[in-house]
Write a structure and sequence with these properties.
The chain has eleven helices and two strands; from the N terminus they run H-H-H-E-E-H-H-H-H-H-H-H-H. The chain has 285 residues and is mainly alpha-helical. Among the domains are: 33 residues; 70 residues. The N and C termini lie far apart (131 Å). One of its GO terms (biological process) is cytoskeleton-dependent cytokinesis.
Length: 285
Amino acid sequence: MDTVQGEIDEGGVNEEGVNEGAGIDGEKPKQTTDTTTTPLPLFSYIESLAQRAPPAIDPLMALELRVRLLEGLVVGLDGLDQDPKTGVLSTTTTTTTTTLVKSTENIKRTLNKYVEGNETLRRFMSRYDQYAPYLTPAFALGLLDESTMSHPASTSSSPDITTYIHEMEPEIRGADASMQEIETMLKRGVLDGGGGGEGKEKQTLESYIPLQPRLAALVELHQQNRDRAEVLERRVAGVMQNHAGYIDTLSDLFLAWDGALIEAENRVVRLEREKEERERLGLVM
């Protein structure tokens, strides 16, 4: 019986397709019938979809789908978890992915925000074409000669120069005011060490050289006064600390004195009550 069961477990089916253990315990072997698979008929919905015209897609949506396809081919689909064994992408996404188009738009929007907020940067970006030749690595390495480069001022027409001057009018007026202030300061003798203007003798830096010994003596005296002030500050700090110690000691003595007075008062009251009690009992003559 064990031998037959082992044959059933090992083989199960012989070469003729009949179960070897089918005849055990008087059971008749089951006959298998071959069933031919017939193709399933097409559903009406699928037929209608096949006959229906393809839907119209927005050009922007089509471009977005193509960009997403290129993005998936180039950088991969980071938002989908892929099974390493089967290679099937899971339907649940753990992180939200941003397309290249949206990333580019976000970067462009951020740059525009910073450019519009900074007046100097906005002016630089508006005239970037004028500065472009000077921003190349070749010019930085000295491979290009500045004389051979085409300057915008030399190639611009008269209306362009007029427009450029109108745009630069506030800066030109500011520079003119600064130059006038510089000229006024030069007339006052700022470069000559603060000397006077017309009708006054100009004082140069050499005229202050005899005053250096007096300045050195004054600095030394100031240092001595500073040292004395530090010593006095330390002494005052010590006096204040001693005063605080005396105040604490007096506070402790006052509390002890107050406690002694309270205890004496309580004792006197107790003795008076005892005297009255004795007089009431007739113990005191």
